[in-house]
Amino acid sequence: MGKTTQYKSRTSDENGIIHWSDDENQIWSELYARQIDLIQDRACQQYLDGLELVGLTNDRIPQLPDINKVLMRETGWQTAEVPALINFTEFFRLLANKQFPVATFIRTREEFDYLQEPDIFHEVFGHCPLLTNPAFAHFTHTYGKLGLAASKEDRVFLARLYWFTVEFGLVKTAGGLRIYGGGILSSPGETVYSLESDKPQRHPLTPLDALRTPYRIDIMQPLYYILEQFDDLFSLAEMDIMSLVAEAKRLGLYDPLFPPKEKQAS
Ligand code: HBI
Ligand code: FE
């Protein structure tokens, strides 16, 4: 899994503080300012409540000890500093221990609008607010324990369930469709596209379908799955997900809705 990253991650000092440069804080500030407007009336209420609790500000990259205080109080979660994308074993081990990986680098201006790997804006702005929510925290914790115990092959199936919920999930609300997936909430283009474009398909989430749905990480998603209601994440966590993985393996994958990724010029 270890894709080599072009980014140099930062390490914190003995108090867990990272001394970001003015330019790095400025990039956060511009990303935050743009995204905070776009998510109004598009992010689900549970996310907005969490954003309030986590108390992100628009002037600088938040410090993880401050976020950890809130997460520990609300759901017993913590963040874990990681250099970039981490491998499945490390990823599931952290989630199984109620630790959410936060890559300690921020994107460059060249990748301002989109970057393929998760930077601190994606992890903190996209995911941390919902880690204050008991249903989301319970699902993510259960998911981590399942992944840690799963085989390599089963982990590939489990990654699809994470992808179509935690990363790119939508939820039905009285006010219409709303977003809870962190991959959408940290991406300006996809925040609008996921709800308002007529291009993507949007289907009710059945875990078996999600487990069978291929995805690409480098395009706007051609398909979203919709939770009937947010607290269904509790019941999702209680399902026998590994039996559904076995069923998905037996039935095979759905045809992809996207063209194959053209081979990168080597
Ligand atoms: N590593 N830092 C980091 N953040 C992620 O969200 C992440 C990861 N490694 C693996 C991974 N996600 C995916 O495989 C999950 O979508 C299953
Ligand atoms: Fe993510």
- How would you write the strand order of the largest sheet? 4-3-6-5
Q: What is the structural class? A: alpha/beta
N-to-C order of helices and strands: HHHEHEHHHEEHHEHEHH
End-to-end gap: 19 Å
User: Approximately how much beta-strand content do the residues carry?
Assistant: 5-15%
Small molecules held by this entry:
7,8-dihydrobiopterin, fe (iii) ion
For the CA atoms, what is the radius of gyration?
18 Å
How many helices? 12
Q: So what's the overall shape?
A: globular
Secondary structure tally: strands = 6
Weakly predicted, low-confidence segments: none
Fraction in helix: 40-55%
Characterize the main sheet: 4 strands, mixed
Overall mean pLDDT stands at 95
Account of the protein in words:
The structure is a single chain. With 266 residues, the protein is α/β, with parallel strands linked by helices. It has helices at 22-38, 45-54, 64-75, 88-96, 120-127, 134-149, 152-167, 182-185, 188-196, 207-211, 232-238, 241-251; strands at residues 78-82, 99-103, 170-173, 176-179, 201-204, 223-227. The protein has a four-stranded mixed beta sheet with strand order 4-3-6-5. The protein has a two-stranded parallel ribbon with strand order 1-2. Strand 5 (201-204), helix 10 (207-211) and strand 6 (223-227) form a beta-alpha-beta unit. The protein is globular. It starts with 21 loop residues before the first helix and ends in a 15-residue tail after the last helix. Fe (iii) ion (FE) binds next to helix 5 and helix 8.
